[in-house]
Write a structure and sequence with these properties.
The strands form 5 sheets. Strands 1, 4, 5, 6, 7, 8, 9, 10, 11, 12 and 13 form an 11-stranded mixed β-sheet that branches. Strands 14, 15, 16, 18, 19, 20, 26, 27 and 28 form a 9-stranded mixed β-sheet that branches. The chain is elongated and about 75 Å long. It is mainly beta and about 450 residues long. The protein is about 10% helix and about 35% strand. It has 2 domains: about 1-190 and about 430-455, no CATH class; about 200-415, no CATH class. The mean pLDDT is about 90. InterPro entries: DUF4241. This is DUF4241 domain-containing protein.
Length: about 450
């Protein structure tokens, strides 16, 4: 049996090599119950073995084992996809060239596994270039039951820590006193992209930062009326739209709704002369009577899971032609039947009319194309709801301005981001592999990836 001390606090500081903001077990338990973040350090003989990061409200558990030199050399990011059941969203490893290399230095090779809910996994190795490939991860290596407070051996066992088993967890003799939080938090759970003050993008006179100079919102431009016979909305580039593209999971009542374009005026100086031009910032489908949004929710398509998103990540619609379009699913097949139709629609954007239209006589639906702001890329769609939960608008944000930081005299929104609690598990949780077995599998995947990368010249990234 091995005795392992448990220390609670805000987190581990690699510079001070100590727990910052130590707290009692009672305080950690209180945070656990409230869903507030806290950290757990497991150590033996004064040597750190693993750090656990817990944020119940975000459904997040992080495991960061230490190497023999006191560096956190791996990271396991778990999220609660189903109630009481954790899914491994991401795994990272750092390969340090020397024993005294600083933790997570740029000299260390960086290996990442990014795992989808169905086990599809992207492998990447970042070392003197970027090499990527894919694999599939079985359920027993990507799933864990959510442990109760204090049951930390559910996340890391004796074999994983390199100790004779079983483990006996004992509280640290007394709360440590090394340092206190002094500014930014040591860690935070993954925070996907959050919407800014989106409706202000359609209020003339609002101002936002963008590049070197602030920009001013102009009068929004009417882009036409979108006919939605089914209310199932697709937002996509019309030139790459396919018959397999699915609508957003949130639908609206069938009907006809106005589409508006948000625009800003940009001023800049070039070669001693002041230049002024307009740029599209967003396209808004107005549903109902323009009630202000009380909540925002990221638009998703079937199979997408917002809990799997990392910091500043989002699901969006891809653009290859500088053009986006709103349409009902009833118009999809007619639009993709002739590939030239989508290309013609994109070519007409900004011509005689800013937003050209495609009509499907058979269904009565149409598609309205619009310029995608700065051009190609991927752009999120946000769903606004009123206080009763009814959809008020859909906004495709072109991300051309930072709408999170409005400047005076912009009226700030009080809307909040809507997040859904983890749904109940549809079946009993699968038996998870012992942590040491999963660690061994990941070491094998790393070795395979390194060997493949040596045979394939990596691309720069």
């Amino acid at each position: 049996m091995s005795s392992v001390e448990v220390v609670y606090g805000e987190g581990w500081c690699a510079v001070r090599r100590a727990v910052i903001g130590p707290m009692s077990e009672e305080e950690a338990r209180r945070r656990h119950t409230a869903g507030d973040p806290y950290a757990v350090l497991l150590r033996a003989g004064g040597r750190p073995l693993a750090e656990l990061r817990i944020a119940g409200r975000s459904g997040y558990v992080g495991l960061l084992p230490f190497d023999a030199h006191g560096r956190r050399h791996q990271e396991y990011d778990y999220v609660e996809l189903r109630r009481g059941q954790l899914h491994l969203r991401c795994h990272r490893q750092w390969l340090y060239p020397t024993p005294d290399e600083a933790e997570r230095s740029e000299q260390a090779a960086h290996f990442t596994l990014t795992i989808e809910a169905d086990g599809r996994t992207r492998r990447s190795l970042d070392h003197r270039g970027l090499f990527e490939t894919s694999t599939h991860l079985s359920a027993e290596h990507r799933s864990l039951p959510l442990a109760d407070f204090g049951e930390w051996t559910g996340y890391v066992d004796a074999d994983r820590l390199g100790l004779p088993g079983p483990l006996a967890l004992v509280p640290a003799p007394a709360p440590e006193t090394d340092g206190q939080p002094d500014g930014a938090p040591l860690w935070s759970p993954p925070a996907p992209l959050a919407p800014g003050h989106l409706e202000a993008l359609f209020v003339p006179g609002s101002r936002f930062p963008s590049g070197d100079e602030p920009v001013t919102v102009l009068e929004p431009e009417a882009a036409g009326s979108l006919r939605l016979p089914t209310g199932r909305v697709i937002v996509a580039d019309p030139t790459v739209l396919s018959a397999s593209d699915e609508p957003l999971t949130v639908s609206v009542p069938p009907g006809t709704y106005p589409l508006m374009l948000g625009k800003v005026e940009i001023r800049s100086e070039w070669d001693g002369e002041e230049m002024t031009w307009e740029e599209i910032t967003a396209a808004m489908l107005v549903v109902g009577d323009r009630r202000p949004a009380a909540t925002w929710q990221l638009g998703l398509r079937p199979g997408q899971e917002s809990r799997l998103l990392g910091d500043r990540q989002y699901y969006g619609f891809g653009v290859d032609s500088g053009t986006g379009a709103f349409l009902d699913i009833a118009a999809r097949d007619a639009l993709v039947a002739d590939r030239d139709t989508g290309a013609d629609l994109a070519a007409a954007v900004g011509g005689e009319v800013t937003c050209p239209e495609f009509r499907d006589p058979a269904s009565g639906a149409n598609a309205i194309a619009f310029p995608s702001g700065a051009g190609d890329g991927s752009y999120p769609v946000w769903i606004g709801r009123d206080h009763d939960g009814e959809v008020t608008c859909l906004i495709a944000d072109m991300l051309t301005v930072d709408s999170r930081r409005p400047l005076p005299p912009t009226e700030k929104s009080t809307a909040v981001v809507l997040t859904s609690p983890a749904p109940p598990a549809e079946a009993p949780p699968l038996a998870a592999a012992p942590p040491a077995e999963t660690a061994l599998l990941f070491a094998e995947l790393l070795a395979q990836t390194v060997a493949m990368a040596r045979r394939t010249p990596p691309r720069q990234g």
